[in-house]
Design a protein that fits this description.
The complex is a heterodimer of chains A (181) and B (347). Chain A is built from five helices and five strands, in the order H-H-E-H-E-E-H-E-E-H. Chain B has 347 residues and is mostly helical. Chain B contains twelve helices and four strands, in the order ββαααββααααααααα. Chain B is globular, with a radius of gyration of 21 Å. Classes of the chains: A alpha+beta (181), B mainly alpha (347). Chains A and B meet through helix 2 of A and helix 1 of B.
Amino acid sequence: MQTLTNRAKPVDRRPMTFMEKMYIPAIAKGMGITLKHLFQRKATVSFPEKKRQFSPVFRGLHVLNRDEEGRERCTACGLCAVACPAEAITMEAAERKPGEEHLYREEKYAARYEINMLRCIFCGFCEEACPKDAVYMSETFAPAMYQRKSFIYGKQDLLIPNPKTHLPVNNFRPKKYNSQT
Amino acid sequence: MTLLSIDWFFLIEKILLISGVLVLSLVVAMYSTWGERKVAAWIQDRLGPNRAGPMGLLQPLADGGKLFFKEEIIPTHSNRFLFILGPSIAMMVACMTSAVIPWADTMTIAGRQISLQVADVNIGILFIFGVVSMGVYGIMIGGWASNNKYSLLASVRAASQIISYELPMGLALIALLMLTGTLSLKEIVEQQRHDLWNVVYQPLGFFIFLICAFAECNRTPFDLPEAENELNGGYHLEYSSMKLGFFLFAEYINMFISSALMATMYFGGYAYPYMDKLGLSENMLALTGFLALFIKTLLFIFLFMWVRWTIPRFRYDQLMRLGWRVLIPLALANMLITGALVLFRHH
């Protein structure tokens, strides 16, 4: 049989020798190993104080993108919702009214855009499906919350801050830990 | 001061000493739980408790507080009296053994010779043996009174384990007694102070005693009475709140006392090399002696933990075979050889 690694050892079924039956050398060896581990570097990351670096391909919570002028890029085409294998994305489209050109990039926009973070499997298909570069996955993960409904992220949770105004615009409200709403 | 033909200073001195030793063993037992978790974590490449206080040092207080506030449950079909008696015996007996251990040499305070040993009885070792084997009654009564199959099985295991390992332990000690010729722990230490430590003369005896001490304290690899994954926790399955705490605490006190005992009998107790050549005053000598004994004891406690996180539990038949077919013949051989050598030296 072909082995996967070259570390495989055949099982030794010979009866134990006297030295082996004494167990003392084996126990001493085992205690040597545990003593070595006592001084080794620990694998634990003390979480709230230290955060582990995410890998460059990490897929976290979604964000809805704006263009350079601060207009929403999403046109509510629904391709992300179709691509989503977990059916986590819901949206409602609306037509842009005259005078709203500074808010929405194209004539159609998403009036409602919700992602259920409990359904989402963070596969990244929505990101790939989006033709307008509107939905991206960030490097944060969902915080712990007390209620299921707080995991349904609406537009105000997903949209990034407006780069024109640079202020934390009132329609951007990052979810807080232990949010009761 | 003698009043009503009672030496009151003697009484106060002993009461202070007893409370000191009790507090010491309780604090050491408390911090053994912390140490145990730290050692376990380090061996498994983790950090261990580090949230309560600096380095997690307040963790034992948090654990104790939690146990006190837990709901007290006494099962309906249990024997109420015996159910409460079990952990009480376990705890009381665990605290009693510390009485004969000489913690240090005599001190002189305000012109009075104060021996840092609660009772220097001339049958010290016998006393410890008698008291320690009573400790298993706590486990047996507790397990029996729980009216639970697992607890009962655990107490049967505990009883037969104590019987099997008390024998080689006693035989190993007889060899030691042949060498020292005394049962008083204080005299054993004094002999080691002016001579080599007993472990040099009795390496095999010490090893047998060590294994039996592990078994008597119900520590891994001999923790069959409280095997979590076989018996759901064993004899303390039905216990909650501080009664459970007493059982667990008694185990740690036993560990501390047997560590102190091993250090006293085989590793020189409060004596350390060149202690008489340093030219220290009597009180300083007693203090450094106590420190030496304490460090030795802590090293033994560490050994207990180190072994626990290295070796898996024995199967029950392996436990019995090791006790009866390996340790007892070995201890007998050790005793015979020691006896022959002692006889040879005298002639």
